[in-house]
Amino acid sequence: MGDDQKKTILGISENLEALIAYAVGWVSGLVFLLLEKDNSFVRFHALQSLVTFLALTIVGAVAVMIPVLGILAAVLLWPLGLVLWIILMIKAYQGEKFKLPKIGDFCEKQLAK
Question: Is pLDDT at 3 greater than 80 in this prediction?
Answer without folding.
Answer: no
